[in-house]
Amino acid sequence: MAQFCVHCGAQQTGAAAFCVSCGKPVQGAVATPAPSPAPAAKSSPLVKILLICLVVFFLMGIFSLAAVFYIGYRVKNKVEQTAKDNGIDLRDLATPSPSGRSVDPCSLLSKEEASEILAVSVVRAERTGNDCQFYAEDSTPYFVISTSENGKQQLATMKIVMGGLAGKAGAPSMEALRGIGDEALLGPMDSMLLVVKNGTGLSIDMRQVPQAKDRGIEIAKKAVPRM
What is the DSSP string of the chain? Predict the structure, then answer.
């Protein structure tokens, strides 16, 4: 350990009896004083606030994610229960590929047959995509026949929608029809008739037709065997 003169403070070398600086007798030595520790840096209040905000946002994110999963779980259960109550196979909604075949809607009913069933003069039938529009004397289609390669999906969607409205005041209803295709439904206010045969769908829009239920059934019985 280094020694220092108690009189002048000069550092001493070896075991000399007298100070090499002031010449006075060396009576003792003192240890080199240890450096004082640096004071700890104090945390900034702004840093603390930022950390608190980050923790709060993190917790809010966790709670929000949990809420989304919970709501999704409740909606999933509701849809599954509605489907079950209405005899719907949800796989029909999830099937991305067509389950039936493509059919020309205008090949399913002639304008002469339509005129006879509806007791009106149907002057022409025009195809637009998957629709066949039947015209009487004016420029507005009197009724429309449509076909779909995903008939099961179309029918399942209608059941889901109508099932969700069931039980509410003033809610429209649908009616199952027997003996037409594999499955047939008559929509709200007899305005739409949906049929599925071998996966192919047929819909008849009858909003302009009086006595739509009976006439729609007659049209379906003519058209479905040709699908």
Answer: --EE-TTT-PEE-TT-SB-TTT--B-----PPPPPPPPPPPPPPHHHHHHHHHHHHHHHHHHHHHHHHHHHHHHHHHHHHHHHHHTT--THHHH--S-SS----GGGS--HHHHHHHHTS---EEEEETTEEEEE-SSSSEEEEEEEES-HHHHHHHHHHHHHHHTTSTT----EEESSSSSEEEE-GGG-EEEEEETTEEEEEE-TT-TTHHHHHHHHHHHHGGG-
Comparing C-alpha atoms, which of 151, 157, 160 is closest to residue 224? 151
Q: How far apart are CA 111 and CA 100, in angstroms?
A: 25
- 184 forms beta bridges with 177, 195
Do residues 225 and 202 lie in contact, with contact meaning Cβ atoms separated by under 8 Å? no
Which two tokens mark 60? 């809010």
- Inform me whether the pLDDT recorded for 33 exceeds 50: no
Predicted pLDDT at 104: 96
Nearest alpha carbon to residue 132 among 170, 156, 152, 106: 106
d(CA 209, CA 211): 6
Rounded to two decimals, the pTM is 0.57
- Non-local (6+) Cβ contacts of 170 within 8 A are none
Q: How many residues does the chain have?
A: 227
More confident residue, 63 or 87: 63
